[in-house]
Amino acid sequence: MNNKEKLSQLYQEAVVNINGVITRAEDAKVSIFDRGFLYGDSIYEVTYSDDKSILFFDEHLDRLYHSASILNMHFFIDREMIIAETIKTLKHSGMGRAYIRIIVTRGETHITLDPNSTIKNNLIIICKPQPHFDDLIYQKGIKLSLIEITVNEIQGPDSHAKSGNYLNNVMAMNEAIKLGSDDAIMINKKGFITEGTTFNVWMVKDGILYTPPISSGILKGITREKVLDICGDHKIHLIKEPISPDHINQADEIFITSSTKGIMPVSHLDGRCLGNNIEDWPITKRITQLYREVVIKNKESKEYFYG
Amino acid sequence: MNNKEKLSQLYQEAVVNINGVITRAEDAKVSIFDRGFLYGDSIYEVTYSDDKSILFFDEHLDRLYHSASILNMHFFIDREMIIAETIKTLKHSGMGRAYIRIIVTRGETHITLDPNSTIKNNLIIICKPQPHFDDLIYQKGIKLSLIEITVNEIQGPDSHAKSGNYLNNVMAMNEAIKLGSDDAIMINKKGFITEGTTFNVWMVKDGILYTPPISSGILKGITREKVLDICGDHKIHLIKEPISPDHINQADEIFITSSTKGIMPVSHLDGRCLGNNIEDWPITKRITQLYREVVIKNKESKEYFYG
Hints:
2 copies of one chain form a homodimer.
Chain A: H1 3-13, E1 15-18, E2 21-24, E3 29-31, H2 35-39, E4 42-50, E5 53-54, H3 57-70, H4 79-93, E6 98-105, E7 122-129, H5 135-140, E8 142-147, H6 167-178, E9 183-187, E10 193-196, E11 200-205, E12 208-211, H7 222-233, E13 238-240, H8 245-249, E14 253-258, E15 262-269, E16 272-273, H9 282-300
Parallel strand pairs in A: 8-9, 8-15, 12-13
Antiparallel strand pairs in A: 1-2, 1-7, 4-5, 4-6, 6-7, 9-10, 11-12, 11-14, 14-15, 15-16
């Protein structure tokens, strides 16, 4: 499919909720005076549902409110309302398995950077079919490149807030695609690995699992947290420390984690081949299985069931 | 006026052009799938008109296309069309003196960071009454604070592209307001002065004028360029070099430049008083007068006259 067809498919399939009103995707619009549009001044979460259960929703809501607090965002919407509106949107969509994006902006401005100039947030909930990543991707892995691009760092507001200020990530992905990769791992100013454009990064060397600590300037991924729990529960040897490009270039296995991708193996880093098949990556394979069990357990709890 | 009244005044007064269609400000909306809204993936320019002439429009258009090129943004809109649409919007507004904001986004996405996933840009032109800065401000000056916040730096895509990725600037302004100032000067990771949230920064010490070079990670302001020309033409002693907080803390005069603010004196930096009146700042006063002459000349050229 070309870009036009993909967009038109999205418009056919997605259901959008804008401040409580369910809207056709094609008609889903926001004021051009919204600070999300003018300044990237918004926060968001992405999760998904499966068998009509929203996965790890509490954790995502916690992080949403945490992001708001980091950015000093007045939050006029209560948690129960976000839950109710999300469930309403999912029910309306009829989808049992959906990608869910929740965006909260600081609201409309009379064009001043002053964040205290708004009177209400805008809440946008997008539900669309969960993107289908072919089973083959999980068997064969994806290609990544290391990109030396300024990531939003620890002194800045962004590293821990999940904001809509994503231009650096857009540019990193663009560089990686130019280099023939699928996506990018970004390097911070001190020269250490941080995170991917939309995912956290893990590597295995000599049977030990490594991932960058939060202090490297990364977002506290929900799936990352789940994998940390798995390592604790199953005595998998894990070291959280700053990872250099030299170190990751000698990795035996690399995988990435995100709410939409789950655990996804990496077949190439900057052209270097790490193997051809999930069978080549035993720790990645084991964590994939253990994570699947965590997801099933969460689903079976039916905590956020909308059936 | 409170925030609600200010917003409702904006909605009454502004005229918006969205992809060639003139729209009431209240109805001016963009798709929530626009990359400007989702990722801050847009570029923009702000200029103004006076006596029905658009000021320094060529320079702004040059920079707009330069920003697009830095960000690898496919630009499907030609320059003549932007000029024609801007003039159409201004004529429709009836305003002789208007604030003009031109925004170009990479367009709508089926929700992927990949910047090659779009099929057309969105072009938004906002015209509203030029914000009135009281004459008193130009006589008495404003209060600034130095804020150590991550500015988007030279390795990143942002320092020279004028993008809509402004969350760091929003947060810097927020900090400054908390400290009792009007606005912020941002410091880069090396500890040097860069720029304000929406303006370039200048200081005078012992009769010499200083401003940070582009290599400090600043945007090439159009008004900054005009002041550089003025310094050359009038033999004003100017040094472009990285400025430390220590250096600016000993300044005799500080002023800021932007298209909307022009030359604006600074009365306080982090609480330290630099004087009470434009008469205390002879170089600021002289440059204000010389800049006014440049503006009048540009206006009289009637290059972008829409009367």
